[in-house]
Design goal:
Number of strands: 2
Shape: elongated
Structural class: mainly alpha
Helix content: 55-70%
Largest sheet: 2 strands, antiparallel
Strand order of the largest sheet: 1-2
Radius of gyration: 27 Å
Order of helices and strands: HEHHHE
Distance between the termini: 29 Å
Length: 134
């Protein structure tokens, strides 16, 4: 009688012939690189906004912002208030501006890197990549 364990042992002991192929990457499509870098930048923007919100909520709930505000008021004789600058709408607006700037910069950098790679392939011959089939 053959059990499942015997079948798995027999299957793992048999060698499968995996064909290995070495290919050279000689071209990166410009628009594909731009689309991929844009999607990565959108994910980074979402992470930036959510992380900023969570950090602000933690700082506000622990009372750290009010303590620093009281310290600054004591040092500057009530002429500067940190709480007037660090409200939730202002912090989230700043996070949105940073996220939009990151979106633009990362997308442009993806395009630039694809262009530089395509130029450098002419000098180096490309990137050698190995693949195998199971």
């Amino acid at each position: 009688m053959s059990t499942v364990a015997d079948k798995l042992a027999k299957k793992s002991s048999s060698k499968t012939s995996a064909k290995q192929v070495r290919l050279r990457l000689v071209y990166v499509d410009f628009w594909s690189a731009v689309k991929l870098s844009f999607l990565a930048a959108v994910a980074l923007a979402i992470v930036t906004i959510v992380a900023t919100f969570l950090v602000f909520i933690v700082l506000q709930s622990t009372g750290l912002i009010t303590q620093v505000d009281e310290l600054l008021k004591a040092v500057t004789d009530n002429s500067f208030s940190l709480a007037s600058f660090l409200s939730l709408p202002q912090v989230m607006a700043f996070a949105a501006v940073v996220a939009i700037l990151n979106l633009i910069v990362v997308t442009v950098l993806g395009a630039v890197v694809a262009g530089i790679y395509n130029l450098m392939v002419k000098v180096t011959g490309g990137l050698l990549v190995g693949f195998t089939s199971n």
